[in-house]
Amino acid sequence: MATEIRETERKYEAEAGASLPSLGGLAMVSAESGPVEQTLEAEYYDTADLRLIRAGVTLRRRRGGDDAGWHLKLPAGPDSRDEIRLPLGRAGRRVPAELAALVRGPARGQALRPVAQITTRRQVTKLLDDTGGAGRGSSR
To answer: N or C terminus: which one in the chain shows less Cβ crowding within 10 Å?
Structure first.
């Protein structure tokens, strides 16, 4: 079953060696949990001539972390994208039919294939409310 979220992302640069300050003092944040390191392995899919990325579309298969699975990101305005997620399932490296159908237009009939592989190490700090429930978290 697919899940869909709206993602708004802004990136900031810090000097080398800088550390993230405590976020426990923010409104609605009572404590922090972590950080916990995650290793993410992502394989990106596109057409041979990169039609998806040129249309602002990202299709990847990710292993590791809390959001392992297939991720399709579609433009949704400045700094925002709609992300559709499916579990890894049994298809292996084959793009799930549901996602392939959604990129049929930007792919313009071309086959989807792996075009890049990236391994990332991420530090995840979860922000907890006063009941100990975790919010969305902060990646470092």
So the answer is: N
Give the H or E element holding residue 61: strand 58-63
CA distance 23 to 137: 10
pTM: 0.80
Distance CA 90, CA 85 (A): 15
Token pair listed for 100: 């392939």
Residue 131, CA distances (Å) to 20, 29, 34, 35, 60 in order: 24, 10, 17, 19, 35
Q: What is the pLDDT of residue 133?
A: 74
Structure tokens given for 125: 């700090």
The per-residue pLDDT for 138 is 47
Max CA separation in the chain (angstroms): 51
